[in-house]
Amino acid sequence: MPHDVQHSSRRAAKTPSLARHGRLRKSAAWKTLLKSVAAVAAVALVSGGAVAAYAAWDLAATAQPTVKLESEKVLEGVPDVGAIDGGVNLLVIGSDSRAGQGDGFGDPDEETAVLNDVTMLLHIAQDHSHVEVISFPRDMFVSVPGTCTDPEDPSEELSALSSVKMNSVLAYGGMDCVVKTVEELTGVTIPFAGIVQFMGVAGLSEAVGGVEVCVAEPIEDPYTDTYLDAGMHTLSGLPALQFLRVRHGVGDGSDLGRISNQQVFLSALARQLQADGTLGDPVKLYSIAKAALANMQLSSSLTDPTRMISIAKAMKDVDLSKIAFIQYPTGYVEGGVVPSDSAELVNQALQADLPISFDPAADQTDFASAADPNAPPADPNAQVAAEGDTGGEAPVEGSTESTPTPPAGSLPSDVTGQTAADVRCSAGRTLADQ
């Protein structure tokens, strides 16, 4: 398929080398107030206000300017996240910008392209019974709507684009444009968003005391200087960041393999946070807040402490088996990937606020995760019972006749991922296999 760029609004498309953010008022008092509010809010998110007073004073200088999302208007008159129709949607954007990240990631002036190499949609059900985390491949071709405004001049509209890679949208139109692109792709409204840089990920992993991950086969990746033997590894700081960035040393060496490798890490992190009482530890919570604020840019909707606390409460008690990490289903085309037919089923599940579960027959052999080799063997009788159970959630409609009908509540076998309760291992690859 052709990957041309279509222009449909009054301003020619442009792709800057650095991210552009909305200009702020020059009032020093306004900036100080904004930073203080952001600091209090971030601490409130993780601590429920226990250390908010001290943290606001100490963290105000580290808070970055916020960005206002057009979709925030849906929050007007909403008392808390539990009242948001259809659940909560929050977009996490991982930027590869080297600016302010030190010398370990290359020259910030020469090597920065401000690509959103990680784009994840967090969906919390309206009744707080389930959570979905959708990862969108960076090389997926998408359309950018003509409603994006120029971050440097909000009075100017940017051109609509078609068939551009997902990871180019941040540099083109900033945080709000990435949000609008994902909204158009999925059909859901996203009133919350945040951008995290390299050191934010490293700092967060240190703040939680490291994350233990399982490696099934050795990982050898000179691009990120990641070399891990098979077995269990506790990763913190830079090694944790590089594990999340590694691509050549896992799965098939593609970005799709990297996504499933990231799911191994994120599911392990979710299990750890529930198991070790981190959410009740003020010292750890303060460290998490400081690491986040120093290396994150939040949407202005996340500077409201009441909303932040509501989001934390909404996720606190979700069963690990009901937290699904999903790779947005795609198919290969020349130069990248495009959404497959099953992507619309994922969209429908999000729009209807339905839980997503995986077909037990899903084939994940091409990706970068494998079952835990130390786990007890599966009970074959349990599989038969699951396939015959029709008493759960109604299945997501839209399956084609050529696709085997999955068990009730699950999606076709080309929708891959894992739950936070699943202990999976990174399927590494050595230099000899690359």
Automatic annotation (TrEMBL):
Residues 116-274 form the Cell envelope-related transcriptional attenuator domain. Keywords: Membrane, Transmembrane, Transmembrane helix. It comes from the Bacteria. The chain crosses the membrane at residues 33-57. Residues 1-20, 366-434 are annotated as: Disordered. Belongs to the LytR/CpsA/Psr (LCP) family. This is Cell envelope-related transcriptional attenuator domain-containing protein. It comes from Agromyces mediolanus (Corynebacterium mediolanum). The lineage of its organism: Bacteria, Bacillati, Actinomycetota, Actinomycetes, Micrococcales.
